[in-house]
Amino acid sequence: MPEGDTVLLTARRLDAALSGRPLVRSELRWPRVPVDELTGLVVVETVAYGKHLLTRLDDGWTLHTHLRMDGSWRVARTGAPDASARGAFVRAVLANETWTCVGHRLGMLDLVRTRDEHQLVGHLGPDILADDFTDRLDLLAPGGTVAGPLGACTVGDLLLDQTFVAGIGTLFACEGLFRLKMWPWSRARDVDVVTLLLTIRRHMLRGVAVPVDGREVKVHARAGRPCARCGDRVVRGVVGSAPTERPMFYCPTCQVPRPGQTDEGPGVTS
Ligand SMILES: [Zn+2]
């Protein structure tokens, strides 16, 4: 699933290609959404919020898209073969005279009034890649810790809870916990969540600055391969519970529960 860094890079590409220019072509291949509603409108901007993309138009409406599992937006020069946007998996086409943006396999698509965007993203926590994210840490973790019901969650679950913080997926959750040698099933109240979030944010920002290589993956999707730190084999566990359980890759030697930490264990491992 695309993570916040990919979504932010996608937003920047769409913004650079479309903003400030009128759309000469728009196709929204989605149930109950008008097919050609946007032609003639000027795109104001495209921004990311967590894993959501918001393309704002000058008539006060916003096209909301989400990449979900394997969606993508590709940009091609208008008139080029890639801009033809043929294929069963094309869900959206937005084009001006220079650039054509084609949304493939999108997981969500809605048109909402810009003033109503909160109906789509208002339930989410602060965006970990937002410029003002660090100002929100006091609210997320007063005194540096997460209390109440969230504090009782495992830290692996908490990181993936988009209503707590938006934009982190399994890759950056696994990598952040590995970097800080944290046991993913520790109770959130028992770990330094502020340091963890700042570590993940720095890592994600490197992924934005240097796409792909900036991610420096150490454990994610590396089950059975040697840990870069100790040489033990990386293991795949599970966080969350059905139907929303997610894989959690970790090193069983580097990431162990500290004395006194409660844990519920890694679930099924392989
Ligand atoms: Zn290790």
TrEMBL record:
<dbReference type="GO" id="GO:0000703">
    <property type="term" value="F:oxidized pyrimidine nucleobase lesion DNA N-glycosylase activity"/>
</dbReference>
<dbReference type="Pfam" id="PF01149">
    <property type="entry name" value="Fapy_DNA_glyco"/>
</dbReference>
<keyword id="KW-0378">Hydrolase</keyword>
<keyword id="KW-0540">Nuclease</keyword>
<dbReference type="InterPro" id="IPR000214">
    <property type="entry name" value="Znf_DNA_glyclase/AP_lyase"/>
</dbReference>
<keyword id="KW-0863">Zinc-finger</keyword>
<dbReference type="GO" id="GO:0140078">
    <property type="term" value="F:class I DNA-(apurinic or apyrimidinic site) endonuclease activity"/>
</dbReference>
<dbReference type="InterPro" id="IPR035937">
    <property type="entry name" value="FPG_N"/>
</dbReference>
<protein>
    <recommendedName>
        <fullName>DNA-(apurinic or apyrimidinic site) lyase</fullName>
        <ecNumber>4.2.99.18</ecNumber>
    </recommendedName>
</protein>
<dbReference type="InterPro" id="IPR015886">
    <property type="entry name" value="H2TH_FPG"/>
</dbReference>
<feature type="domain" description="Formamidopyrimidine-DNA glycosylase catalytic">
    <location>
        <begin position="2"/>
        <end position="94"/>
    </location>
</feature>
<keyword id="KW-0511">Multifunctional enzyme</keyword>
<dbReference type="InterPro" id="IPR012319">
    <property type="entry name" value="FPG_cat"/>
</dbReference>
<feature type="domain" description="FPG-type">
    <location>
        <begin position="218"/>
        <end position="256"/>
    </location>
</feature>
<dbReference type="InterPro" id="IPR010979">
    <property type="entry name" value="Ribosomal_uS13-like_H2TH"/>
</dbReference>
<dbReference type="InterPro" id="IPR044090">
    <property type="entry name" value="Nei2_N"/>
</dbReference>
<dbReference type="InterPro" id="IPR015887">
    <property type="entry name" value="DNA_glyclase_Znf_dom_DNA_BS"/>
</dbReference>
<keyword id="KW-0862">Zinc</keyword>
<keyword id="KW-0326">Glycosidase</keyword>
<dbReference type="GO" id="GO:0008270">
    <property type="term" value="F:zinc ion binding"/>
</dbReference>
<comment type="similarity">
    <text>Belongs to the FPG family.</text>
</comment>
<keyword id="KW-0227">DNA damage</keyword>
<keyword id="KW-0238">DNA-binding</keyword>
<keyword id="KW-0456">Lyase</keyword>
<keyword id="KW-0234">DNA repair</keyword>
<keyword id="KW-0255">Endonuclease</keyword>
<dbReference type="GO" id="GO:0006284">
    <property type="term" value="P:base-excision repair"/>
</dbReference>
<keyword id="KW-0479">Metal-binding</keyword>
<dbReference type="GO" id="GO:0003684">
    <property type="term" value="F:damaged DNA binding"/>
</dbReference>
